[in-house]
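Example A, followed by Example B.
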Amino acid sequence: MAEVLLNHDLAGQVRALSAGTRPQPKVADGAIEALKQAGLPTDGLHPKDIDAVMNESIDLVVTVCDNAREACPIFPRPIPSIHLPFHDPHGEPLESFLAVRDDIRTRLVAAVREKLGLQAAAA
């Protein structure tokens, strides 16, 4: 959800890529539904291993769960990072995914905007 929310809410300012140290076989149905209910695109979403993004041009690493923070790999060059944990709603009802979606939108988008010195979107 973080990848989609960052790419939507900071469109034209960032290109977010999501990857995990131990990704699930597929994106959770609850995550897809939570994004769809917010009118956000879900086509082509799939879990990626960190190796899939290791050679990308990365300006900021964001860890959103404590185990990822501790297992985060060493990147080829120093990269600024932030850690902002979120509840993992895996296996929970849709309401949990909706709450996490809204929490990501509120806290993570603002934290990335601040860390990268991005301007808020015009109203």
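Example B, a separate protein, is given below in the same form.
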Amino acid sequence: MLTGKQKRFLRAKAHHLNPIFQVGKGGVNDNMLKTMNDALEARELIKINILQNCEEDKGTIADKLKTGLNAELVQTIGNIIVLYKESKENKQIILP
């Protein structure tokens, strides 16, 4: 689990990032989880945009992504979800 200080630190880092994934009408599927997991391994911190036509609630989507990717939910703001997962080989972010 991330502490409040660590979440603030990650939110500040994520502020300048652009969303690299979009969740739309189809919701979350296995293929999407695999590519997101690869991106998390490479970047450690990603933003995901939830489109207007998404049929599921953004809280539900956030929970599915968090459990499916075994990642930490940093923030949900508007239709944007920020996720963090420590990389095994490519560690770049040192948490306070």
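On Example B: The mean pLDDT is 92.
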